Amino acid sequence: MAIGSYDREELDELLESRQFRKLREMMSEMNEVDIAEFIEEQEPEKKVLVYRMLPKELAADVFSFLEVEDQEHIINSITDYELGKIIEDLYVDDAVDMLEELPAIVVKRVLQNATPQTRNLINQFLQYPENSAGSIMTAEYIGLKRNMTVEQAFAYIRENGVDKETIYTCFVTDSKRCLQGVVTVKDLLMNPYDTVIKDIMDENIIYAVTTEDREDVVETFNKYDLLCLPVVDHEDRLVGIVTVDDAVEVMEQEATEDFEKMAAMFPSEKPYLKTGVLELTKNRLPWLLILMFTSILSGTVLMDYEHAIQVLPLLLSFVPMLMDTSGNCGNQSSTMVIRGMAVGEIELKDVLRVIWKEFRVGLLCGLVLAAANFVRLMLQYPGRPMLSMAVVLSLVAAIVLAKIIGCVLPMLAEKMKLDPAIMAAPLITTIVDVGSLLIYFRVACALLNLA
Amino acid sequence: MAIGSYDREELDELLESRQFRKLREMMSEMNEVDIAEFIEEQEPEKKVLVYRMLPKELAADVFSFLEVEDQEHIINSITDYELGKIIEDLYVDDAVDMLEELPAIVVKRVLQNATPQTRNLINQFLQYPENSAGSIMTAEYIGLKRNMTVEQAFAYIRENGVDKETIYTCFVTDSKRCLQGVVTVKDLLMNPYDTVIKDIMDENIIYAVTTEDREDVVETFNKYDLLCLPVVDHEDRLVGIVTVDDAVEVMEQEATEDFEKMAAMFPSEKPYLKTGVLELTKNRLPWLLILMFTSILSGTVLMDYEHAIQVLPLLLSFVPMLMDTSGNCGNQSSTMVIRGMAVGEIELKDVLRVIWKEFRVGLLCGLVLAAANFVRLMLQYPGRPMLSMAVVLSLVAAIVLAKIIGCVLPMLAEKMKLDPAIMAAPLITTIVDVGSLLIYFRVACALLNLA
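Output (structure tokens, whole complex):
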């Protein structure tokens, strides 16, 4: 919600009736995110028209919030001079994100219109490996020197702060650009003007290295509640910063990837509605194929007990219930463990505690479900106590087995440096199916003398 | 990682050899999060010992990062005077979080040792509904007046800023505490000292209302890349702020809840390792029971075609593969849609686009899987082309059906104001199972003349 928020209908009307001066005035009071949204909803020609109307100081900010398709469209519709202005005003991380998605020919034109300095910086940032700290950082930070006074620091910030992603955390570097300390604007405000930075800077710096995994960067943000994290290269030189909004975006992306992997899909790069049918199919097919052929095993178990089924076809009617229930139980355990490991609540050293816990939970769940089932079976098939017995006994055993497989496999994957998320519902279900069918038919054959 | 990070072994040694002065000195250079971690790893008596050693200005910060069990232990081991100091120094949101978990008798003692003002504030905050904006906000913000100059604002911040959660966003209120504008420290720094606040404050304020759902708060944070969001009551009076670190925590909790719901569990309040077996069982049983009884339906379908199975037992061997594959396909679609709606990428109005997309993806996946299966069947059962045909035809139909059910049900839940996350793998699988078994046996009976 927003007090004094913009009136969407008024905007549309102003644009419709070509009252561009008023429209421009209204937009200059709006939030960049809302302007970007307004532009995105226009017809292609109007997008450029509205975009060109923006006050200079808003243009690059709004541009960075546009979808890449719209960015491309605007780039292709403006002059080299206008393009050059945008590129210089964009933060490096936003420029890099955009360039990674644009077609090569557009990238070439963009880089040609950047100053040599910006071009070099962008090229350097484009080279950091995907999913590394370097790939999510930006270059616009405030760098101070240790011998500056608070007064000098403020003067420096006033002069250079406009274009920085954050001015609230400042970094102190030496002549070799090595990181020496951190000082916040709060520290500066709380100390007299003649204080020297080196006396108030914090030398216990939390930082990341360019090649570090971006997931670790996010963990550091969460652990220390940071607003901003410096990134250094392998010679300890400060090369960039990650701001909290970018860390939050990574967090959301990583969670989405886990959801996708746990549903037996390869993570997609783009939002669902923007992903083509072919790409979606490509992401989903590999696991479907693997799981399909694995589930043939369950079919084989069924055929092994063909004789028992021929003698007592009723046995069959409990197969889906057994398979579904044990699958669900395994799914619950694996989800708890995978998520617990992802947020750092469960570690590998907890494996025995987890198994012991799941064993007891499994036993309890199994007993309650078995009791409910036993009542139902005794009512529905009063003359068949041994069959009912066979069903509920195998139900308990299958549930306990499922709970244990469900918690052990993700931890095993983690131990083997695989992604635990692949050991989720789909694979667990297939594995647990085989186990529960085997238990069921063995128990039934023994109790009912079918073998 | 941290430059000049603390040496854990040295800390242990200092504590072991009772060199408390050195230990205290070392801790005063450390990050509060790391100190809290160090305290948590000590024996109970040593926890209090180390905690009491902390410099005054660190004590409350470290306290807020401790687990609630340790907070309780420390509260029970210190004097009323010490307790009073802690309570006054804690941010209201941290105090409220803690009080919500402590036993009533401890809560009583804590409130008795707070000043009347703090006690009233805490009591007011404790009353906001769970999961509301009010329940995650805190009271320590910087409030300015519209007629202050930049110089006066800085003087005010210098005097009052030490205890505020953030000083970087300041809120301008009128005499009735109604929110009028927002001004950042960056704005203050970029303008001359004699500028009047009302001329530079932003009147287009993004804010939340105390009763608003905390999920909406998080969405606003993400949409506008905020560091801080003001919260007003129903009379537009500013009552608190939500800072980005708290929004991030909510984001993580909401994602965890979705993972749990999608695996047919009630979300747990506590981390896995701290949740008792009984509570885990209670969270998992209800859905297991519902799903177990629903899956009886699949068993009934099997029994309906008992005759066909008696005639051709081989039919059975493809049942698990059909059930598993269609379940997996439905799971993939529902996960995409549930997550897409959770992060705001997919909206209800997209329903036809989603169905059309899933139909095509389903058809493609189905055709590929059917082709792979057909090859395998023709090799394994060369004399049974009609059986192979029945299997692959029903496979394609079941997959398309699963994809469509998988995307429609979560959207239907959203439409009916239910939580879409319940329409995930477990329930989808059970529903899809019935459908795919019906398709399979109908097709098989028709093609193989079994009816």
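The mean pLDDT of chain B is 90.
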